[in-house]
Amino acid sequence: MSRRQAIQRVLGRLLTRTGFAGKTLWDWMRLLMVLIVLAGAAFWISSTQRRVELEIERDRQQEAALLEYLDGVTELLLDKGLLTSQEGAQVRTVAQARTLTVVRGLDGERKGLLLRFLSELNLIIRGEAIISLGEADLRGADLSGADLSFADLSRADLSDADLRGANLTWASLFGTDLSEADLTGADLTGADLFNADLSGADLSGADLHNANLSRAGVTDEQLASATSLKGAIMPNGTEHE
């Protein structure tokens, strides 16, 4: 018996034992397709699991960063006299640097929590702000129903933010990016929106009476959806009756 015949006999026995003897080309193709599907499913499961693990880790890191920030600011308030510090004091510089750094890496919900925290502690009061949020990355912040009255949010990036029903009475929104923000039912009485970007923002049911909208980027259609514009300074500088 030649070596070739011996190999063929061994192969034949192997195929017989594994049930593949007598298989047609179509049978082999179907088997190959099944193997490809199984390999693809295994890859998808592995990739999905990896994405979930990354999301969990990212969420954990954000939670840790927020808690560390809150603890740090509390320490600055209790031990470093942040609340009674003077303009230009080092403790204010530290607090602001931490704020602008941390908020950049947070999701919308945690950005909202951070901002509510600063507002409740009177650290961002208009005209007396201890921590400036100028150019702060607050994109997508969840601030629905938040009390931000008299808050200084001038020049902050609040694009895509959820501000539904928020209290923004007499808030400083000078030059603030509010593009695509949801301001449905928000109270903007007396708010300073000079040169603010309101392109695409939803102002349905918003109260804008006595607000300053001079040079604001907003359309007549948007303003028409507001509840009140009485006494507001319009984008062209005229006062609404």
Structure commentary:
With 241 residues, the protein is mostly helical. It has a domain at 60-224: E3 ubiquitin-protein ligase SopA (Pectate Lyase C-like, 3 Solenoid), CATH 2.160.20.80. Helices cover 43% and strands 0% of the residues. The protein has five helices and no strands. It has helices at residues 3-18, 25-79, 90-104, 108-120, 220-224. Helix 2 (25-79) packs antiparallel against helix 3. The longest helix has 55 residues, at 25-79. The radius of gyration is 31 Å and the shape is flat.
Describe the structure concisely.
The protein is mostly helical and 241 residues long.
* CATH homologous superfamily designation of the domain at 60-224: E3 ubiquitin-protein ligase SopA
Give the termini separation: 109 Å
Helix content: 40-55%
- Which CATH architecture of the domain at 60-224 would you pick? 3 Solenoid
Give the helices and strands as they follow along the chain: HHHHH
**CATH class category label of the domain at 60-224:** Mainly Beta
How much of the residues is beta strand, in percent?
under 5%
How many helices? The count is 5
The largest pleated sheet is described as: none
* Unreliable residue stretches: none
Give the number of DSSP strands: 0
Morphology call? flat
CATH topology of the domain at 60-224: Pectate Lyase C-like
Radius of gyration, Cα only, in angstroms? 31 Å
SS content category: mainly alpha
On the 0 to 100 scale, the average pLDDT is 88
What secondary-structure arrangement, pairings included, does this model have?
Elements: H1 3-18, H2 25-79, H3 90-104, H4 108-120, H5 220-224
Helix pairs in contact: 2-3
